[in-house]
Design goal:
The complex is a heterodimer of chains A (460) and B (636). Chain A has 460 residues and is of the alpha/beta class. Chain A folds into three domains: 3-77, SH3 type barrels (Roll), CATH 2.30.30.520; 97-304, L-asparaginase, N-terminal domain (Rossmann fold, 3-Layer(aba) Sandwich); 312-425, Rossmann fold (3-Layer(aba) Sandwich). Chain A is built from eleven helices and 23 strands. In chain A, the strands form six sheets. Chain A has an eight-stranded mixed beta sheet, with helices on both faces. A five-stranded antiparallel beta sheet of chain A has the order 4-3-2-1-5. Chain A is globular, with a radius of gyration of 26 Å. The two termini of chain A are 49 Å apart. Chain B contains 19 helices and 21 strands. In chain B, the strands form four sheets. In chain B, strands 1, 4, 6, 7, 8, 11, 12, 13, 18, 19 and 20 form an eleven-stranded mixed beta sheet that branches. Chain B has a four-stranded mixed beta sheet with strand order 2-3-10-9, with no helix packed on it. Chain B has a four-stranded antiparallel beta sheet with strand order 14-15-17-16, with helices on both faces. The radius of gyration of chain B is 32 Å and the shape is elongated. Classes of the chains: A alpha/beta (460), B alpha+beta (636). β4 of chain A pairs antiparallel with β5 (125-126) of chain B.
């Protein structure tokens, strides 16, 4: 497709070509109903082929039915050069070195005319141009590893990111920030917790729930929080740093193995499940909420283990599930299955033969709970015991997504199921905890008078 | 340039001489049950709230890659924005924690209809835009807005006023307070659908601006599809004079304020142009202007001027600012009883968040502030000569410095002319700085919603339900002999459609129908100040139908309306029909009680008639009854 008529097809393209009015032309469009003046904009490729998009003098965009166009008068041309103002990121020898690794997501972004969506922009200069406060915290270096949406992150990107982290630690950075789309940030946080062990510096994952092309975006504040954590905190773990409340007040640092995205759009979507977060972070300070974290060190030692077996799946159990679901995985050569079972970790009886088959085929099958909070307990009911007989291994209070990436990582290292089981049961960093504190499960129920009173007294 | 004449003295020729031009942007809420991009109820207001949210706004790039000037200014002000949330009226969409739902189709139909009444060229495919507002009045930092029609016109006197565009957009929050670095909003109004109608700058006198505003208001009200009442319609007025700049006066809620507001703005621009000429005469241009500022705490430690003494005691900073060649110019008149110093003070208030007044003092009005020795010492410290004006600004260190810088910025702008600003309407008819005028750079396509095609079929469906435009209706009503004071209210009333049906289908006399629909409700409201009855469509329709069918006489209409107000019931429904001969004889007999006899015949007739009519409550024809009573009482 010609870039001159970016995004246009069908009747709209024909009309523009007919009157030689390529994209960015300053035009007067005459139609049967009247005329319109403005600049021809590119059109989103997914939009229909029947309309021409015009930017009016007032800045508004409108679409004109191509079929109604009788003439287009070209008066001039005004091409947009969308660019985040770039300024040299200032260097201060007294400030720590922080590396920002980009995988995608929208920390700073710009409009993509082809799709109508936003695409990220990223260089230190661009970031400094949009969030100059970062220069007060560190000397920032950036590297774009990938430019993918969160849902397109997978083993290849996980491994590449883990390796990049290893390289940066060897080079002596004082902290690492990883820009990431939020949808699967907790999957990546978990696998990086396994692939990158014994890090001497903080590894902070960050993203935004409102893209940075909006004045109300959480991106800038999240970025400041995460850079501050990477530069200054003594927590040398893989963490997720995102808003605590929906207000612009503080962020939370969640342990990479216990965090989960819990709302499709809220800013405060990330929550630590079954435990409390590591710390709170605001622009002024980092306030640890617990002491049992791994401390920052001044060496450059780190263990990178990027083993990964891709033939692993999660099965979310539902009533009346048929065994063919499990059979299909077996027949397709899967080596590991994580079940998100009901309640304490259950599936129905009709699945048993399939589970038995899985055991015979040397497939690792682990049980987690779809309630997310709480432990698998397969002794309470006979059905649980039956399943254990069939080789289904209870995975304590490991979150289903965490169990999924950990099983891939374990199977990448061993094929002997006993060895796999040993790896699965040896906590790397809190993915299984011995105990659940009573404040590890707090979901306030709206409408209850004391909850309403509490909400009315604090900012959300 | 001669001095500016007073408001009363100004004639159309005077406005022509200064090149007065004005246009309107009218915001009118639509009468829908739900909001524009979510399904919260529309039109429910309450100052009570359940929770608060705190946000900040940051500027972002426009679609064409520019930062908007206003956006950068608002960012300088670094406000904490607090939103008060009432769960009944606000959901997670308004809090900017949920993406938009689809555009409210009911609102779109209304907007399309009104655009057609304005004869706009209709837009075939709607593109939702984000119009940035960094003042915090919308939690997203932008208003979702879309143009539904462009290039329309309305007839006004012997000419026509162009309608540049008609947009459909969501309403913003209501501001509760704005003090220092904290601005508080209540969110109930947020997200309600409204239309913005933009006229061309074709009004030539302040009076014309008000008249066109009235015309447009009547026009939208005549559809019956818009909200009325306080805050339901607000206008922004754009004013410029020859050599001046387009200035937007925001949030004028009452049309009668418009003439004085626009007069004062014309005067301000005229005087600022004179000020610029004076500066040029003194050899000061935007390029040559110099100014500087310095901390002046040391010299003012012992001052008796309370605001500064208190500021220093509280650990705040005082800056002395020198404006080169400005001697006496801070006393240059701008608007009625308002001087250039106000332009500076306003900027300091808004941009440096120094909201406690006075926030500046200056050497052009030295009295009652500092001692003359203090002014002298300051001049020495700052190395300021006699031709220079000193301005002091004080506050928390960062804010005071922002203030000092802003004073220099505004002074330099005076040498350029009139800065592009939006200004707020004040009660006394003057206006004050609100923010730098935003440009097209603040527009950004809304990536959350795809474009939406408006089909010709949809437009046709709407077109068939549209009433005639208000100006056409008024001409027709007059020709029907409808009382002059009823013509305009009826034309823009929601009963205009019912009126048509009543006279064409049910055979009512036009005058009677107009009186029932417009004057009677007014009369019934008189006794109950503050209470405006919400007449239901069902009742008014039934009432006129019953009158048309001859089941209710003219005299019974008011009693029936009163009865409905009191009980919510239709009076005539429990009736057997028109009064029988026997009933009438009975009523008259009942009414002719003892005291009647002592009255003169005419008075006696009136008393009897009054009683009988009350009793009949519309079930008897008044004229026939009066004739009968008069005959019976021997009065000819």
């Amino acid at each position: 497709m010609s870039t001159e008529y970016k995004g246009y097809r069908g009747e709209a393209l024909a009309a523009l070509e007919n009157f030689q009015a390529p994209v960015w032309s300053d035009v007067r469009v005459v139609t049967g109903k009247g005329s319109y003046s403005g600049i021809v904009l590119p059109r989103s490729e997914t939009a229909d082929p029947r309309h021409i998009v015009l930017k009016l003098r007032s800045g508004y965009n409108i679409g004109i039915a191509a079929a109604s166009v009788t003439a287009i008068e070209v008066l001039g041309r005004k091409e947009a050069h969308y660019k985040i103002p770039e300024k040299v990121f200032p260097f201060d020898p007294k400030k720590p070195r922080v590396k920002l690794l980009g995988t995608g997501g929208t920390i700073a972004s710009r409009l993509d005319y082809r799709t109508g969506a936003v695409i990220p922009a990223f260089s230190p200069g661009e970031l400094y141009g949009s969030v100059p406060e970062l220069a007060d915290l560190c000397n920032l270096e950036t590297e774009k590893l990938y430019g993918v949406f969160s849902e397109n992150m997978g083993p290849e990107q996980w491994i590449g990111t883990a390796q990049a982290i290893g390289r940066e630690i060897e080079k002596g950075v004082q902290g690492i920030v990883i820009g990431h789309g939020t949808d699967t940030m907790h999957h990546t946080a978990a696998i990086l917790s396994f692939m990158v062990q014994n890090s001497p510096v903080p590894i902070v994952m960050v993203g935004s729930q409102r893209s940075s092309d909006r004045p109300s975006s959480d991106a800038a504040l999240n970025l400041m929080h995460s850079v501050k954590t990477a530069a200054e905190s003594d927590i040398a773990e893989v963490m997720v740093c995102m808003f605590g409340p929906t207000s612009d007040v503080y962020g939370l640092l969640h342990r990479g193995t216990r965090v989960r995205k819990m709302h499709s759009s809220y800013r405060s979507t990330f929550r630590t499940i079954g435990d409390i977060p590591l710390a709170m972070v605001s622009r002024d300070r980092i306030t640890p909420l617990r002491q049992d974290y791994k401390r920052r060190r001044h060496d450059r030692e780190v263990t990178i283990n990027t083993a990964f077996e891709e033939k692993v799946s999660i099965v979310y159990y539902y009533p009346n599930m048929k065994p063919d679901i499990i059979d299909a995985l077996i027949d397709n050569g899967y080596r590991g299955i994580v079940i998100a079972g009901t309640g304490l970790g259950h599936v129905n009886k009709p699945l048993y033969p399939a589970l038995k088959r899985a055991r015979e085929k040397n497939i690792a099958v682990y049980m987690t709970v779809q309630t997310l909070w709480g432990y698998v307990q397969m002794y309470v009911y006979d059905t649980g015991r039956d399943m254990m007989e069939l080789g289904v291994t209870p995975m304590a209070n490991m979150l289903p997504e965490v169990a999924y990436v950990k099983l891939g990582w374990a199977l990448g290292q061993a094929s002997d199921l006993k060895r796999v089981r040993e790896i699965m049961y040896t906590p790397v960093n809190g993915e299984i905890t011995e105990r659940e504190p009573s404040n590890g499960y707090l979901i306030f129920q709206g409408g209850i008078p004391e909850v309403e009173e509490f909400i009315s007294q604090i900012k959300k | 340039m001669p001095p500016f004449k007073s408001f009363e003295e100004m004639q159309p020729e005077d406005y022509a001489a200064i090149g007065f031009k004005s246009g309107l942007e009218i915001h009118q809420q639509l009468l829908t049950s739900k909001k524009l991009f979510c399904r919260c109820p529309a039109g429910r207001y309450s100052d009570e709230y359940d929770a608060e949210i705190l946000r900040h706004m940051r500027p972002t790039l426009s679609e064409l890659g520019e930062y908007d000037g206003t956006a950068l200014m608002e960012f300088k002000t670094k406000k904490e924005i607090i939103y008060r949330i009432n769960r009944e009226t606000v959901c997670t969409y308004e809090m900017d924690d949920t993406p938009p739902f689809e555009l409210n189709e009911e609102a779109l139909d209304i907007a399309l209809g009104i655009a057609m009444l304005y004869n706009c060229v209709m837009v075939d495919e709607l593109h939702i835009a984000r119009k940035q507002y960094l003042d915090g009045s919308i939690p997203t930092g932008f208003q979702r807005t879309t143009i539904v029609g462009v290039d329309g016109a309305v007839p006004y006197r012997e000419r026509s006023i162009p309608i540049v565009q008609l947009g459909l957009e969501e309403d913003a929050c209501r501001e509760v307070s704005d003090f220092g670095h904290r601005r508080v909003y209540i969110t109930d109004r947020l997200g309600m659908p409204l239309i913005e109608t933009v006229t061309g700058p074709e009004m030539r006198t302040p009076l014309e601006v008000a008249e066109v505003a009235q015309l447009l208001r009547r026009m939208v009200r005549s559809t019956g599809l818009v909200r009325t009442g306080i805050g339901a319609a607000r206008q922004d007025v754009n004013v410029s004079v020859t050599g001046g700049t387009r200035i937007e006066i925001k949030g004028v809620s009452r049309i009668p304020q418009i003439p004085l507001l626009t007069y004062n703005e014309a005067m301000r621009q005229y005087n600022l142009l004179r000020l610029r000429d004076e500066l040029h005469r003194r050899g000061i241009t935007p390029e040559s202007f110099t100014g500087r500022y310095e901390v002046a705490n040391k010299l003012l430690r012992k001052t008796r001027f309370q605001p500064i003494a208190q500021a220093i005691a509280a650990g705040n900073t005082v800056y002395g600012v020198v404006l080169q060649g400005f001697r006496d110019l801070l006393r240059w008149p701008t608007q009625t009883d308002t001087f250039f110093a106000r332009e500076i003070s306003d900027r300091v208030r808004v941009i440096a968040c120094l909201t406690t007044l006075p926030n500046i003092i200056h050497s052009d009005s030295p009295g009652e502030t500092l001692a003359s020795s203090e002014w002298l010492n300051l001049r020495k410290l700052l190395g300021a000569g006699e031709e220079e004006t000193l301005v002091l600004v004080w506050g928390p260190p960062a804010d005071a410095e922002t203030g000092a810088r802003e004073i220099l910025i505004r002074a330099r702008e005076a040498a350029t002319g009139i800065p592009s600003e939006t200004r707020q309407a004040l009660e006394d008819g003057t206006n004050g700085f609100e923010r730098i005028l935003p440009g097209p750079d603040r527009m950004y396509p809304d990536t959350d919603l795809p474009p939406k095609a408006v089909t010709p079929e949809r437009r046709e469906r709407i077109r068939t339900t549209l009433p005639a435009p208000v100006w056409e209706r008024e001409v027709r009503y007059r020709s029907m002999g409808i009382p002059a004071d009823t013509v305009e209210p009826l034309a823009c009333s929601r009963w205009a459609g019912l009126f048509e049906t009543a006279i064409t289908q049910w055979g009512l006399q036009p005058t009677l129908a107009a009186v029932v629909l417009i004057q009677y409700p007014r009369r019934l409201r008189k006794g109950q100040p503050g209470k405006s009855a919400e007449w239901s469509d069902e009742f008014m329709t039934a009432l006129l139908k019953t009158v048309g069918a001859g089941r209710l006489q003219r005299e019974g209409i008011l009693p029936a309306m009163r009865h409905w107000l009191a009980t919510g019931e239709n009076l005539w429904e429990s009736w057997p029909g028109m009064a029988s001969e026997n009933e009438i004889i009975g009523w008259i007999a009942e009414a002719r009680v003892a005291e009647c006899r002592s009255l003169a015949p005419a008075a006696r007739c009136r008393l009897i008639m009054g009683r009988v009519m009350a009793r009949a409550a519309g079930r008897a024809n008044g004229a026939a009854l009066a004739e009968r009573v008069r005959r019976q009482e021997g009065v000819s």
